[in-house]
Write a structure and sequence with these properties.
Elements (H helix, E strand, L loop, with lengths): L1 E5 L2 E3 L5 E8 L8 E6 L5 E7 L5 E3 L7 E6 L4 E6 L8 E9 L2 E4 L3 E5 L2
Parallel strand pairs: 2-11
Antiparallel strand pairs: 1-3, 3-8, 4-5, 4-9, 5-6, 7-8, 9-10, 9-11
Amino acid sequence: VQLVESGGGLVQPGGFLRLSCEASGFTFSSYAMGWARQVPGKGLEWLSGIYSDGRTYYADSVKGRFTISRDNAKNMVYLHMNSLKPEDTAVYYCATDYAGFEYWGQGTPVTVSS
């Protein structure tokens, strides 16, 4: 199982970013995918998830601003982030739970600053 995130970077407050995660090594369409973030020195914060049937869930901190989506034909999961705030600055990870194990990507950093 391999997860590779991309799309992070520097963005101004109020701006937009789309994070991407390319998955391989498992039957992507059959598994839920999620996004989490971590600020250095702080704990991991789960943000959003999408089930194989397309149902989604969001943490209160991002509800209404972030949207998760998936493209099963491309083995991709996305996190569309709008109205970004400085407190959204973190390393963002995608993850899945496959065969009883959690798998994580290497993360992509997002910095929200003017």
